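Contributing new records

If you add data, match the layout below exactly. Sequence lines come first and carry their own label; structure lines follow with theirs. Keep one chain per record. Anything else will be rejected by the validation script.
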Amino acid sequence: MFIGHFAMAFGAKKLAPEVSLGALFLACQLADLIWPDLVLLGVERLAIEPGNTAMTPLSFEHYPYSHSLIALFAWGVLFAAAYWIVSRASLRIAIVIVLLALSHWALDVLTHRADMPITLSDSVRVGLGLWNVPALAIPLELALLAAGVWIYARYTVARDRIGSTGLWALVGFLVAVYTANILGPPPPSVGAVAWSAQAMWLLVACAYWVDRHRRPRSWARLAHRFT
């Protein structure tokens, strides 16, 4: 899954209005932000196998340190702890961050074939394989994104034009990348996959930027009362 992960971050703004969308993006995509480095270091492995599933030619051979249920719980706790140290956030925020990290595993189980590890030993893998049923997988991801963006737009308001146009540009870019991944040719090499995946950090940065130009809608209503 790709845009479905970001959908969770958009929707989480309702539960954590004081947390930047960039931090929420980071939490929901911890697995995919860590994974490319581990592939480049040779710790985790993937192969390019056209036809592996109907929607992706990538075969995820070994990635328990970035994508297992246990690993994502640990990464989520570490990120929540770091966020608490920096911002003195509440326990509620810490829980939201951990749940976002775990949501990555849950959504990937829906779409991946049985290659999602549960523990670091990588001995048991699960997956429902919706990537082999594009007629279900694609509408599901688009519906998740639409719901997440609707929640974010409902509970935040633009401070300026950047906050408005920037949000829709970000959403449009996510959909464009998703479409290119589905319709484009297989990547030329494993290294190309890992290096291109580093661009995920740019999406995190863009989310921070967009969110700086928006504010929780409740704040906007409170300000209106006193003006």
